[in-house]
Amino acid sequence: MKIIKTKKKFLTNIYINSYFNINIFKKNNIFIIIDYNIYILLFSIFKKKIKKFKFVIIPFGEKYKNINTLKIIWKYMIKKNINKNFLITIFGGGVLGDIIGFVCSSYFRGISFSIFPTTLLSQIDSSIGGKNAVNFFSKNSIGIINNPIYIYINYNIIFFMKKNEFFDGYSEIIKYSIINNKKFFFYIYKKKNIKKIISRSCYIKSKIISQDYYEFNYRSILNLGHTYAHCIENNKIINFSHGKSVTIGIIFCYFLSSYYYKLNLNILKKNIFLFLKLNFFIKNSLFFSKKMINKIILDKKFNNKINFILIKNIGNCVKKNIKKNHLLFFLKKFYEI
Ligand SMILES: NC(=O)c1ccc[n+]([C@@H]2O[C@H](COP(=O)([O-])OP(=O)(O)OC[C@H]3O[C@@H](n4cnc5c(N)ncnc54)[C@H](O)[C@@H]3O)[C@@H](O)[C@H]2O)c1
What we know:
Radius of gyration: 20 Å
Strand content: 15-25%
CATH architecture of the largest domain: Up-down Bundle
Shape: globular
Domain 3-dehydroquinate synthase C-terminal: 169-301
Pfam families: DHQ_synthase (PF01761), DHQS_C (PF24621)
Bound molecules: nicotinamide-adenine-dinucleotide
Number of strands: 11
Order of helices and strands: EEEHEHEHEHEEEHHHHHHHEEH
Cofactor: NAD(+); Co(2+)
Mean pLDDT: 85
CATH topology of the largest domain: Dehydroquinate synthase-like, alpha domain
CATH class of the largest domain: Mainly Alpha
Number of helices: 12
Protein name: 3-dehydroquinate synthase
CATH superfamily of the largest domain: Dehydroquinate synthase-like - alpha domain
Helix content: 40-55%
Low-confidence stretches: none
Number of domains: 2
Transmembrane segments: 29-46, 86-108
Structural class: alpha/beta
């Protein structure tokens, strides 16, 4: 078993293994909150063991990531007499992690929780860093930063995922490889050792967060590709997954970077090759409008400035302020190429 231990008080140890070690539930006061699909998947293994604990099955999907779901779970927990002596244990992807992380952070002013992330995205991204939120008018608008007491990753469980959902997580891995260094960037082209890729990704995210937990500055490099991605996701015209939106967002950042920093085009070509290999399309046919640009500004809430993370080189990303009219110009150019 691989353990990513962190010395910083804000961070969480991450255990990476090829199976779920149920014996870690030494405490009897466990309240399990489990994603419906995972419950079905693990039913035969869990059936006997899970009965020992209080548990609840939650329906899956982004549409449940809202305040109503919070109310239902808070109510259920009160009814079941869940108190501070319980450890809430979450089995599911990023949606469940975000919801229950928020539930736990607010229930009786905070109750301990642990996460068993089951999607690739939740293993390498959403479970790390303590961000918990629900959608209210816009995505992740109501939330809190609070860490689980540990994260336990079973990297074999991701092979049950749908292909497109798996690739969605992979777009974040590609993002890490651009932020981190050339070694990891080239590693993911050749090697397919998923355990190594997951642990390296967890390490990169933990390291960045340990340097700027509350996102005053440096942590924002994790937003590479996300400014434009959120704009795509927020549109009501076409439904794009997060991973696809991030891919388009990253390519757009490459495009901006080649203008501002004369980025080496071979790197861009290599990245496009990988995206295509993974069946990502790299442009969207979305009609962009002033309304969409305003959405970007609102989304990031930075006094009307639009911050983009740009790529000077692999392993060297920087935050750049781009004026609204410049952005419009680049968007138009982007769709001409
Ligand atoms: N907190 C953060 O820092 C952070 C970072 C990135 C994304 N997020 C959030 O994460 C959410 C997306 O998470 P996600 O991609 O994990 O989606 P998800 O949680 O909706 O899971 C996707 C689907 O996969 C199913 N599933 C889960 N594990 C499975 C498995 N092992 N095999 C088969 N099916 C499985 C689920 O039931 C669901 O239908 C978004 O709401 C996003 O905002 C949060």
